[in-house]
Amino acid sequence: MLFERAQPFGFILFARNIERPEQVRALVGEMRALVGRDDAPVLIDQEGGRVQRLRPPHWPDFPPAARFGEIHARDAARGLEAVRLGARLIAQELSALGINVDCLPVADLLFAEGHGIIGDRAYGGDPVTVAKLARAAAEGLIEGGVLPVVKHIPGHGRARSDSHEELPVVETPLDELDRTDFESFRRLKDIPIGMTAHVVYTAIDPERAATVSPIAIEEVIRGRIGFDGLLLSDDLSMKALKGSLGSRTEAALAAGCDVALHCNGRLAEMQEVVAASRALDGEAARRADAALGRQGTPGGTPRKALNVAEAHARFSAMMTA
């Protein structure tokens, strides 16, 4: 079995893996049993809006980030409370399944010229406001025993194309990027896990996307932004990157990503990624341990009890007021 042999750091679930609650709980348990680690990270993209793998009828829909931004613009305190409570409720759903990492919050900024792949996934266009809302979401997840993943460092909002389909190129000057795109992430540099952007920033490295650029990771993500958490690549199977899956994996790890993320589930590609990967050690292992240490109690049990019915009613009232 590939997982037993490869001993991956963790797993990620997509809609294709999800049918009903008891099936997901069993799947999560089986994956952890294969690697012999009860605390192995199990990730999911449960942002709300367009990007949520758990959906009705078994799980509730949650609003997109932009909705919280709209509420915050009218009432800042209510906007922050709503995003924190929404994330806490998401964590409740995930913890019940054994899922302990959510690829949320999105700290990319909204730009009029940007491709819709970000769109309403962004809390807004002001880096200070985006960082406040993103932090509230991260706090809600952690309170519920789920680790947040801030994405997509150092910023996907200006990209004019979808990195799932092609490689975006951003030609904005470095000073402007530093003042805007980087600033929201800089204010979130203590989030335990981050995910890179498959975007070329010509002012940083005109040849390579940030995920595979030592310059972007060392000088910008670790340097200007100051992020010292566990750094995941975005999905290496996305079309923004070229070459074999093995070469993409080697490039991402050599550039400074701590963990290579592969998401499409194709066995041959998974085998290439495994062959090109290396053991998690050194600084990468330190960051991984530090990140996992930020989780709630063992097994992902929420730190604080939650009256779920009351919390859902309060959240619904906030969203409709």
Please tag this protein with its features:
alpha/beta; six-stranded parallel β-sheet; two-stranded antiparallel ribbon
Description:
With 321 residues, this protein is α/β, with parallel strands linked by helices. It has one domain (2-320): TIM Barrel (Alpha-Beta Barrel). It is built from twelve helices and ten strands. The protein has helices at 2-6, 21-35, 65-74, 76-97, 127-143, 174-179, 181-186, 214-224, 245-255, 267-276, 282-292, 308-320; strands spanning 11-13, 42-44, 46-48, 51-52, 101-102, 147-153, 169-170, 193-196, 200-201, 230-232. Helix 4 (76-97) runs parallel beside helix 5. The longest helix is centred in the first third of the chain and has 22 residues, at 76-97. The relative contact order is 0.12. Residues 297-302 have low confidence and may be disordered.
